Amino acid sequence: MDKMSKNQVMVRDAIIFADGYVKREYKGGVRRFSGLSAKKLQELIDLHLADPGEAQNNSPSIAEFLNFMDSHDGYTAHGYTVDYTRDDCRVSIEGIESPGYCEAQELEDFVAAFRDADDFEASTKRMYCWYD
Question: Most buried by CB count within 10 Å: which residue of 13, 74, 80, 115?
Fold first, then answer.
């Protein structure tokens, strides 16, 4: 994926963050987010603002996270964006999560897909994974 322009980052951040692009929110060139829906993640991919093949170290790819989110309602992604001033400007997904009760099959699917995460919780109260 080519390096994003400032305008592309403005569009990207308007999709991800309620306040859009805010330079002072980028600490060390990175801004964290949570609560990103599958619909918004798909929009970022469609607009070429997120690389579906991007993976955070040993995590599944953005496409793999999105595939799980599309087939299991209520999940959101968390991760970070990298500012356009850096050569590694991108969107990175570190994991997904879902609050609330889930059925047994969903629990099995989540465990099978994400049990190797660095931080992992799978219960009827919360589903969470995070990759360092």
Answer: 13
User: pLDDT digits over 22-32, tens only?
Assistant: 999 999 999 99
Cα separation, 87 vs 84, in Å, equals 7
User: Checking phi first, is residue 111 left (phi over 0); if not, alpha (psi -120 to 50) or beta?
Assistant: alpha
pTM greater than 0.90 (yes/no): yes
Environment class of residue 103 by beta-carbon count within 10 Å: exposed (0-12), middle (13-18) or buried (19+)?
exposed
Which of 127, 131, 132, 86 minimizes the C-alpha distance to 107? 127
What does each C-alpha distance from 120 to 37, 67, 126 come to in angstroms? 20, 19, 10
